[in-house]
Amino acid sequence: MPDQTTILFVCLGNICRSPLAQGIFQNLINQNNLTNHYKIDSCGTASYHTGNPPDPRSIQIAALHNIDISTQRARQFDPKTDIEYFDYIIPMDTQNKHDLIKAAAPKQKLHLIRSFDPTTTSPDIPDPYYGGDQGFQQVHQMLQLACQGLLDHCSS
Ligand code: 4NP
Fold it and tell me: Looking at domain 5-155, what is its CATH homologous superfamily?
């Protein structure tokens, strides 16, 4: 395992899925006493929500699992700094991955988050923004499995 691994979680708006992924992964790092080994962040491919806190439904589902994501603030992917700094750039869905390729992210750093979930072959975490609370519960469950798989991958 390298001394430190840097990971960037990416969705479209950086208010629903990637903030939750960041919170869940940070919680796993904390529980496993690996805080010195990882630096993580999240961002969106779009800028509509820059500066905003996560969607209240993401804050709520995280809080139900004792994770506080309320202090996160949305930002857009910045090719100038993010491509060099992060070892792993982790899109939530195939569209995010295409948009990151268009923004010059190198393919060898790009891995769909669900590719680390050994229990599924579905590529995408569906966008829950226009749906109800149940969509956020499902996204949380998918992210929990995928984040554990990502941690296992990076820590082995
Ligand atoms: P996210 O969800 O990409 O998981 O943060 C979305 C948030 C906002 C919008 C779309 C998706 N939007 O169109 O504003």
Answer: Response regulator (3.40.50.2300)
